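dumping this here before i forget
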Amino acid sequence: MSSVATIKRKVIPPHLEVKGGHQLSGVLKVSGAKNSSLVLMAAALLTKETLLIKNVPKLTDIEVLSEILLNLGAKLTKRNNSIEINSRCIHNAELPYQLVHSLRASFFCIGPLLARLGEAKIPLPGGCNIGARPVDEHINGLKALGAEVVINNEVVSAQVSTKNKRLHGANITLKYPSVGATETILMASCLAMGKTTISNAAREPEIQDLAKMLNSMGAKVSGAGTQRITIKGVKTLRGTSHSVIPDRIEAGTFLIASAITRSPLIVGPLVPNHLSAVILKLQECGCSISHHGNHYLKIIPREISGVDITTSPFPGFPTDLQAPFMSLMATAKGSSKIKEKVFEKRMQHVNELIKMGACISLEQNTAHIKGVKELIGSNVKGGDLRSSAAIILACISAKGNSIFTGLDHLDRGYEKLEEKLSNAGSIISRKFDQKTSQISFSNKKFTEDNIDTQKNAA
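structure:
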């Protein structure tokens, strides 16, 4: 006798479907730097004139910061990969919690708002859950510049109480070369009275890009890219046009994509000096890398062997490429060791890689990896932006099919990643919400398509 039908429905969120194991070829094109674009957009608050920022990637983080700037009263016009921002009529010094909570870079607005309006009120920021990223260094720097800062109920309130509401120059030494703190203090001090020095400053290319744009706006910044930055405050800044540097993290991800799929590729545009530590490790593990015209590199992987890395601030090996490099090491010959020294919760990709057959053991923030012959396709999920990229690299190189969920993380930092990989030869496509059903009837299971067949047969 037939049993009663049991219906189980499962909703699959937007995801990527990947058929792994395919060679790549051709060119992987690198977009503008996400981390640079965000801080450059915040810097638009420093001037009443129009700022044109070109080569801006289309990412969800860019959209969120655009909404924040609009909320403050700025006007934005977007054309392709360019954004025109006019902050003449900013009327609001308070950022909305919901938008700030999803984007750590929103905290960059505090420096420009203080410098321009003499006040700012910003909830503590969110972003990827990769460990403690305190804003103490930002706040201590702003206090040194003369701001009064209070944190109450997870909201940072800052104001300048002097009559002219201008910050004043100061000598500031950072306890740690924080990129965010360096950028916040750099922007705030451009309109301060007198001279500011930032010692133990971060040296990342994104800071050099910010200083270059600020100088074209009339600021007086010197030493960006070194451990000591000097800023001579000016009364006003003007508008300018600026093109964002190539995204070194995306470029590094693409170089690793070549290595993990054992596929010769051309990657660019990029600035090789921005990737010196990554290029060195790729060469050390078995890749030939050479210049290919202006701003492009040609990479030819050979047998990949295990190498050790330790993350550190620029010019060291970037923490943002630790996860993608671990995917590569999971397929390398021999053993390797990866030590994360920047963020304490940046190993969220390890369990997903193990699902795919990787041999990895964790000892606090150090991963011990024994390379396997091949990874196996699986249903996997990204827990943060860079772990998502690592898992996708594993998927495109793996034997068999994979389903990747976690696009909300991926879309924060990679512009049209699946389209770029697909154009280079990967079989990868984006799928949206799907409902799948299983029906148990007379001890048999039917997919939803089979149900329709049964109905038609009846």
